[in-house]
């Protein structure tokens, strides 16, 4: 009987004493609840290159952006490959909520002010909730403030003529750690256009992508196809906007350096009014600088 | 489950020791209790443990905090474990949080930080005594790299609750976390890790 009892205790000790750490690990694994894993950093910045990405400022974060586009590379040594000439756009962009971002900016091109709102509708996620894509809605108003040219007597200029409206649906997917792709159906309405050959309503589709080369460097490309471009007979002739660039991230800054055939930096400008041709060397060197400030306590 | 497995694997064994049915049942019962005990009793758990890491340089202070770490302590052996999902760490600056997950911890690849260790010179009395200094040695697994560390801490009753704390430093480079020279001025050489957990008996 004693023998039996000692086997007994031996077995009990064995049952309770083996692999405790493993046991603790299992218990903790069970306690860590499955979560929704939202895809983050689909793009490094709120812009892919010229156009908006689905990224936005989080609540109480302010982004100060300065962008430049130089003249065309084919201006040669006389124009120092475009560096003699420069257009600027700067803006302040703020996250009201994690899903709502507002911004206001000013472009030197046509002395244009712009105000925009970006609203997040869906977030890409895996884990306990599956959602294949990010979807955001972007809308902006652009106010051109160039002085109107002299008008014939008896006609007048209206403030409304200065306005253009942009509506975009941003649909993006981060396929893996490195590759993200965004489709951007766009509708732009311009109250007043230069000539009868210019379209008041423009329909376009943007495709943008980012490929991470390293943790802090990514390669971006962006193309906007216009379904009803301004008449080809216009001078200068309209082209679809094509840009390639890199994002360089350094802590609180993101530098974007790009080559693009459009000098405009707002949707109402680079989508309907790109007049440069890549094949002719009308390529602009440019950069965006983003600096983010946090205004939340704790 | 235990019973059936046992019965099917060791029927000859059980028959050979020629004990009556009552004793056999008792034997199985004891085994059952023992194995349940191994999975629950004598353990303390904290499901909302606090873990922070802090780095300070003249350029920038960085503070990431999680209140969702899970820790379990074995009151018999003094073994102690921690697990935390990297995505539960939050920062004042949204960009820091993004960089933390994307550039440094690579949270998609290495979602969890783990620590499995043992309190040195552990005795059960420590769980019913006022807060006292302890030392814990174990394996810290961060960013997929495992290192054995010994850290100071405290353990004991605080306002009638069993509380454990620890404060120690880790060097990110030791865990394969590269900090580029560009941001070297903003991120400290060492991170100060602070841990605080209020334990409850497991299963309550």
Question: C-alpha Rg of chain A, in Å?
Answer: 27 Å
Uncertain runs of chain A with pLDDT below 50, 5 residues or more?
16-20
CATH fold name of chain A: Porin
The assigned CATH architecture of the largest domain in chain B is Beta Barrel
SSE order of chain A in H/E notation? HHEEEEEEEEEEEEEHE
Poorly predicted ranges of chain B (pLDDT <50, ≥5 residues)? none
- What structural category arises from helix and sheet content of chain B? alpha+beta
Largest sheet of chain B: 8 strands, antiparallel, barrel
Question: Judging by the overall fold, what is the CATH architecture of chain A?
Answer: Beta Barrel
Protein architecture, described:
The complex is a heterodimer of chains A (298) and B (204). With 298 residues, chain A is mainly beta. Helix content of chain A is 11%, strand content 46%. The longest helix of chain A has 16 residues, at 2-17. Chain B folds into two domains: 2-38, no CATH class; 42-201, Beta Barrel (Lipocalin), CATH 2.40.128. Chain B has four helices and nine strands. Chain B has helices at residues 2-9, 11-16, 21-39, 94-104, and strands at 43-56, 61-74, 79-85, 90-91, 112-119, 132-142, 145-158, 161-170, 191-201. The longest helix of chain B has 19 residues, at 21-39. The mean pLDDT of chain B is 84.
């Amino acid at each position: 009987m004693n023998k039996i009892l000692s086997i007994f205790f031996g077995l009990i000790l064995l049952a309770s004493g083996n692999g405790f750490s493993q046991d603790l690990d299992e218990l903790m694994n069970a306690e860590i609840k499955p979560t929704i894993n939202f895809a983050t950093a689909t793009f490094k910045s709120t812009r892919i290159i010229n156009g908006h990405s689905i990224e936005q400022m989080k609540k109480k974060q302010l982004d100060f952006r300065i962008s430049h586009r130089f003249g065309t590379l084919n201006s040669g040594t006389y124009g120092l490959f475009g560096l003699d000439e420069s257009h600027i756009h700067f803006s302040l962009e703020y996250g009201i909520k994690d899903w709502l971002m507002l911004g206001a900016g000013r472009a030197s091109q046509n002395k244009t002010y712009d105000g925009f709102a970006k609203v997040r509708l869906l977030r890409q996620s895996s884990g306990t909730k599956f959602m294949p894509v990010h979807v955001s809605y972007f809308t902006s108003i652009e106010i051109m403030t160039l002085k109107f040219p002299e008008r014939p007597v008896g006609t007048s200029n209206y403030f409304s003529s200065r306005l253009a409206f942009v509506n975009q649906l941003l649909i993006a997917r981060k396929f893996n750690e490195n590759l993200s792709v965004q489709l951007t159906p766009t509708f732009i309405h311009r109250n007043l256009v230069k000539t009868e050959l210019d379209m008041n309503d423009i329909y376009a589709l943007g495709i943008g992508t980012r490929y991470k080369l390293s943790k802090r460097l990514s390669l971006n490309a962006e193309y906007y196809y216009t379904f009803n471009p301004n008449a080809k007979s216009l001078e200068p002739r309209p082209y679809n906007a094509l840009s390639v660039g890199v994002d360089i991230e350094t802590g609180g800054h993101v530098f974007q350096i790009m080559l693009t055939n459009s000098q405009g930096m707002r949707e109402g400008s680079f989508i309907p009014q790109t007049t440069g041709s890549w094949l002719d060397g009308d390529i602009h060197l440019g950069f965006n600088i983003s600096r983010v400030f946090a205004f939340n306590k704790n | 489950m235990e019973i059936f497995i046992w019965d099917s694997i060791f029927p000859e064994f059980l028959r050979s020791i020629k004990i009556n049915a009552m004793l056999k049942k008792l034997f199985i019962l004891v085994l059952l209790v023992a194995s349940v005990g191994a999975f629950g009793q004598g353990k303390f758990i904290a499901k909302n443990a606090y873990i922070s890491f802090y780095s300070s340089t003249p350029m920038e202070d960085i503070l990431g905090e999680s209140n969702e770490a899970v820790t379990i302590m074995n009151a018999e052996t003094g073994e102690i474990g921690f697990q935390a999902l990297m995505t539960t760490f939050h920062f004042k600056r949204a960009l820091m949080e993004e960089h933390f997950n994307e550039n440094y911890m690579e949270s998609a690849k290495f979602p969890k930080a783990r620590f499995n260790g043992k309190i040195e010179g552990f005795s059960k009395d420590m769980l019913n005594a006022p807060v006292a200094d302890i030392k814990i040695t174990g394996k810290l697994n961060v960013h997929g790299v495992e290192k054995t560390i010994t850290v100071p801490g405290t353990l004991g009753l605080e306002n009638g609750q069993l509380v454990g704390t620890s404060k120690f430093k880790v060097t990110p480079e030791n865990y394969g976390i590269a900090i580029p020279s560009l941001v070297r001025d903003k991120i400290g050489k060492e991170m100060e890790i602070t841990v605080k957990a209020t334990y409850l008996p497991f299963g309550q």
